[in-house]
């Protein structure tokens, strides 16, 4: 879906190298690397971290920590219960928070600064938007508010 949304060349620029763990969801590396576009070959390269070496992909781990602030373990919420709009709301919030490691730039803004219209196309494909700083909700209420706007019940 992302490759189709942004095009093959932009996908390769943004995701040419994918560093991941050895989870079963990443076991079919050939399919991940293969382009879905007609006549195209490989779209990226997949590399795996060493077992139990999460620091090898520290930026990803930071996102996991931040996501768990919105969706804490042990609260009866399964990721399987979330609809794409819930995840878009969560990622809009998380990627709009300025980060010290990025010179206090929000990841969403950095994406657009680095990739221009291709970055905007990626955000659009994911249903993400940059949230103004004063409107950030970095807890479960961000997802519940988005759900209420759609007419859904709160997660918990």
The percentage helix is 40-55%
The general outline is globular
Total beta strand runs: 2
Distance between the termini: 30 Å
The largest sheet has its strands arranged as: 1-2
Low-confidence runs of at least 5 consecutive residues? none
Number of helices: 8
- Main sheet specs: 2 strands, parallel
Kindly state the mean pLDDT as a whole number?
90
Q: Please state the CA-atom Rg, rounded to the nearest Å.
A: 17 Å
Proportion of β residues? Answer: 5-15%
Q: What is the chain-wise order of helices and strands?
A: HHEHEHHHHH
The secondary-structure class comes to: mainly alpha
Structure overview:
Helices cover 46% and strands 5% of the residues. It has 156 residues and is mainly alpha-helical. Helix 3 (29-33) links the parallel strand 1 (17-20) and strand 2 (45-48).
Short description, anyone?
By secondary structure, this protein is mostly helical.
Give the secondary structure arrangement, pairings included.
Layout: H1 2-6, H2 8-15, E1 17-20, H3 29-33, E2 45-48, H4 58-70, H5 84-94, H6 107-115, H7 117-126, H8 141-150
Parallel strand pairs: 1-2
Helix pairs in contact: 5-8, 6-7
Q: Which key terms come to mind for this protein?
A:
single chain; 156 residues; mainly alpha; two-stranded parallel ribbon; 46% helix
């Amino acid at each position: 879906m992302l490759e189709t949304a942004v095009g093959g060349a932009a996908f390769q620029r943004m995701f040419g190298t994918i560093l991941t763990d050895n989870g079963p969801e990443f076991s079919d590396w050939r399919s991940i690397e293969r382009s879905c576009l007609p006549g195209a070959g490989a779209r990226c390269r997949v590399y795996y971290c060493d077992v139990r070496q999460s620091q090898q992909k520290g930026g990803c781990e930071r996102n996991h920590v931040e996501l768990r602030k919105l969706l804490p373990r042990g609260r009866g919420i399964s990721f399987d219960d979330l609809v794409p709009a819930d995840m878009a709301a969560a990622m809009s919030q998380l990627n709009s928070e300025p980060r010290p490691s990025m010179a206090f730039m929000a990841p969403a803004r950095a994406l657009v600064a680095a990739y221009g219209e291709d970055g905007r196309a990626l955000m659009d494909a994911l249903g993400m938007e940059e949230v103004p700083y004063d409107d950030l909700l970095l807890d479960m209420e961000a997802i519940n508010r988005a759900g209420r706007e759609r007419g859904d019940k709160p997660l918990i």
